[in-house]
Amino acid sequence: MEYTKKVMDHFMNPRNVGVIENPDGYGKIGSPSCGDMMEIFLKIEDGIIKDVKFRTFGCASAIASSSVTTEMILNKTVEEALQVTNKAVVEALDGLPAAKVHCSVLAEEAIKAAIEDYLSKK
Amino acid sequence: MRRVYLDNNATTKTDERVLEAMLPYFCEVYGNAHSMHSFGQEAGRALDSARETVSNILKIEKSELIFTGTGVESNNLAIRGIARAYKRRGNHIITSAIEHPGAKNTCQDLEREGFEVSYIPVDKNGVVIVEELKKAIRKETILVTLMHANNETGVVQPIEEISKITRENKIVFHTDAVQTVGKIPVYPKELGVDLMSFSAHKFNGPKGTAGLFVKNGIRLGKVITGGGQERKIRPGTTNLAGVVGMAKALELATANMEEKMKEEEELRSFFETEMVARIPEIKINGKEATRLPGTSSISFRHLEGESILLGLDYKGIAVSSGSACSSDDLQASHVLLAMGIEVVDAHGTIRFSLGKFNTREDIEYVIEEAPKVIEKLRTISPLWNEFQLKK
């Protein structure tokens, strides 16, 4: 099992790590017992994602999936962010091993959970 | 960047003296050891000499040594062979909850063929609970198969104590000694076992050569069918160069063994003491049990093992998360779970296994770099942050 250069880059240099205090949207997906857990924090202004941060407990592909997904949705509208699929996450990473594709699903679900949280509070 | 190999329980570097001993058996002495002509006779003498060396070191008879290809193959021959040969006597096998897949999966396969298997639990240090084994014995029990030392934790099992029980109950006893032969003194007759698997690449010999001790008088059903090599138990052309290499490797591994074990244990002790001092919230697994001198299993709380492994690899440090054989398996280690380690801690466990080529400088490099890797990953981990807030 070998990761692409993109996966390793996002794993070793993850983008947008951290927390947003009083986020407009917050999503948490996965569980420690499964070995993967992601948290997404969103700052949204006029329907546009102005800031996004993440924290992830998991393997290299979970960390890389979270990282690349935050890049994909930054400065996008909420509607555009909702269109991000796990397939697009895998493509952005130049591929993931079959056994690790579930990490990209987790990233998609975490973003959706954070946006749903935002929409529910509106 | 320095490169440090701390994955010696997965495999070891072939000692150059072993390679040197093997080289003539590729292009100079290349006959089939079972051919009648002079080329074959020459090869046959080398095979006999290697068998004598290995047998002498293990204190067994030459007729009790079967050369095989791998430790997994040896385990299969032993477990399946006994199951087939003794099934008229009974259909019950006892093993433990912490076996290597080479034994565990073979037992599970036999269950599908109609055998019943009892999986004996271990205590919090990863030691098989002997009382539970005693309770599991039935009149139909034909085989006990237990590993000598666990590949993930290095914890050594009470094989001698258990062999007394199997002898009293006339049960065949096999031990998977793949992790112990060449690392600590191992003599199957002193252990009291009937069969014992071992493998050359774990003690700086070549990959693809292994052995199975089968005590004289023990019957084995056929697992591989073919010609008459290795007493028909393991037919197929013998890997002569590999066998010569294994004999040389075992000679080198067992020379001054006590001294080498002491050095390795001191190096591990230095490593563990420094890791505990430099990294908060870590736990050394099986620390209170007798362990192989070079194995250290450490749980790094609030982190996941693969990310630690790759973070260390980026620094040139090779380790394993649990067992290399399970690296494509996303489940937490069955060994650590059997020890009662919480699943989240099992996910964050790394095996550091030292070998004879590791130096103090290697360990100094690891104890400098590992804390940085752990700290960086913990800043990303929501579990670590939750833990910090609760403090």
TrEMBL record, chain A:
Residues 2-122 form the NIF system FeS cluster assembly NifU N-terminal domain. Transmembrane segments: none annotated. It comes from the Bacteria. InterPro entries: NIF_FeS_clus_asmbl_NifU-like (IPR017787), NIF_FeS_clus_asmbl_NifU_N (IPR002871). This is Fe-S cluster assembly scaffold protein NifU. The lineage of its organism: Bacteria, Fusobacteriati, Fusobacteriota, Fusobacteriia, Fusobacteriales. The gene is nifU.
TrEMBL record, chain B:
The keyword Transit peptide does not apply. It comes from the Bacteria. Residues 4-366 form the Aminotransferase class V domain. It catalyses: (sulfur carrier)-H + L-cysteine = (sulfur carrier)-SH + L-alanine. Residues 247-274 form a coiled coil. The keyword Metal-binding applies. Keywords: Aminotransferase, Coiled coil, Iron, Iron-sulfur, Metal-binding, Pyridoxal phosphate, Transferase. Its cofactor is pyridoxal 5'-phosphate. Gene3D superfamilies: 1.10.260.50, Aspartate Aminotransferase, domain 1, Type I PLP-dependent aspartate aminotransferase-like (Major domain). Its EC number is 2.8.1.7. One of its GO terms (molecular function) is transaminase activity. PROSITE patterns: AA_TRANSFER_CLASS_5. SUPFAM superfamilies: PLP-dependent transferases. It holds the Pfam family Aminotran_5. Belongs to the class-V pyridoxal-phosphate-dependent aminotransferase family. NifS/IscS subfamily. This is cysteine desulfurase. It comes from Psychrilyobacter piezotolerans.
